[in-house]
Amino acid sequence: xxxxxxxxxxxxxxxxxxxxxxxxxxxxxxxxxxxxxxxxxxxxxxxxxxxxxxxxxxxxxxxxxxxxxxxxxxxxxxxxxxxxxxxxxxxxxxxxxxxxxxxxxxxxxxxxxxxxxxxxxxxxxxxxxxxxxxxxxxxxxxxxxxxxxxxxxxxxxxxxxxxxxxxxxxxxxxxxxxxxxxxxxxxxxxxxxxxxxxxxxxxxxxxxxxxxxxxxxxxxxxxxxxxxxxxxxxxxxxxxxxxxxxxxxxxxxxxxxxxxxxxxxxxxxxxxxxxxxxxxx
Length: 281
Hints:
The chain is an alpha+beta fold.
């Protein structure tokens, strides 16, 4: 009888300790559980303010829900990578790359993948007409006429642009870089794409002033060959496989019941993707 009483007392003590640990793990500051690890509201507040630049209270529920979803994704990746250091922010930042470093062939494009991508989606590897152009922008037509005259008499376009142009690229000699069809307003595009290499446009009236364009170099529309397109294809497929791999880690955690959210403990109406079953909006 005495042994039975002692056993009951010990079992009661163990149960009390177990309940105490459960209550501690699920304190009111806990807003989610990821793989058995409590996620605190304090951590999310810090994350939110660092990313949004303002407190949660000053943001809409939609914005707060979106950032909470991203916070949970990073917490899941941190858990999957088995990171539990004191610097949570560093762990979240490093978790995806650590997971990917362990992925092996799952995130690598095979030669067969690359060839198939090129054969099925050749349109992705077409290059449209484009020109490397420079410009001079002035407020007065007389300034533009004078600038064009100077260039026609032999002065360097970039030198005149630095001295006369009022556009943001004046310090770079008016160089705009590569421009494709569709990048410029139609009234300018037609003029620019008719110019030959090293040819200068007439003075063109713009909304707030006057423009002169010069084409420095041309590249006509063409289809990239397989070998030329291969580096781009490899990068594209690696990016796609990386996204799929990380998304699978999230899906597996959710299907395995390793993510639990307590929306009632959040200081906003949560409408995100991790809502518990039966609480969807």
